[in-house]
Amino acid sequence: QVQLVESGGGLVQPGGSLRLSCAASGSISSDYAMGWYRQAPGKSRIMVAAITSGGSTAYGDSVKGRFTISRDNAKNTVYLQMNSLEPKDTAVYYCNADGRAAGWGDYWGQGTQVTVSS
């Protein structure tokens, strides 16, 4: 089993920045792909950013150039730096650890709320 705990969410004004952290524990390894997803009220959960075990990254179109995902394998932690935040970024942000390529499980954190409002 893998446990994921997100932190760093909160209320921020438009144009501001936040950094989300996701600390992984349990049977986690650097071979897991890690990602951030978000779900706004009444909408489906969508991918925001992802990073492979090798460090390759991918971003949703709406956050390209504003958000940066990174990981610290020594700390089993993945980060999401969010800059130039907009009201449309308001959502619950979830951390994901995907080990299915290696025959392992797919795990989710409990989510952290990000609200962008003046």
Order of helices and strands: EEEEEEEEEEE
Gross geometry:
globular
Helix and strand content put the structural class at: mainly beta
Our estimate of the beta-strand percent is over 45%
The radius of gyration over CA amounts to 14 Å
Measured as a percent range, the helix fraction is under 10%
Stretches where pLDDT falls below 50 for ≥5 residues? none
Q: How many helices does DSSP assign?
A: 0
Number of strands: 11
Descriptive account of the structure:
- The protein has strands spanning 2-7, 10-12, 18-26, 33-39, 46-51, 57-59, 67-72, 77-82, 91-98, 106-108, 112-116.
- The strands form 2 sheets. Strands 2, 4, 5, 6, 9, 10 and 11 form a 7-stranded mixed beta sheet that branches. A 4-stranded antiparallel beta sheet has the order 1-3-8-7, with no helix packed on it.
- A hairpin with a 7-residue loop joins strand 9 and strand 10.
- The termini are far apart.
- The model has no long low-confidence stretch (mean pLDDT 95).
- The chain contains no helices and 11 strands.
- It is an all-beta fold and 118 residues long.
Fold topology:
Blueprint: E1 2-7, E2 10-12, E3 18-26, E4 33-39, E5 46-51, E6 57-59, E7 67-72, E8 77-82, E9 91-98, E10 106-108, E11 112-116
Parallel strand pairs: 2-11
Antiparallel strand pairs: 1-3, 3-8, 4-5, 4-9, 5-6, 7-8, 9-10, 9-11
What is the gist of this entry?
With 118 residues, this protein is an all-beta fold. The chain contains no helices and eleven strands. The strands form two sheets. Strands 2, 4, 5, 6, 9, 10 and 11 form a seven-stranded mixed β-sheet that branches.
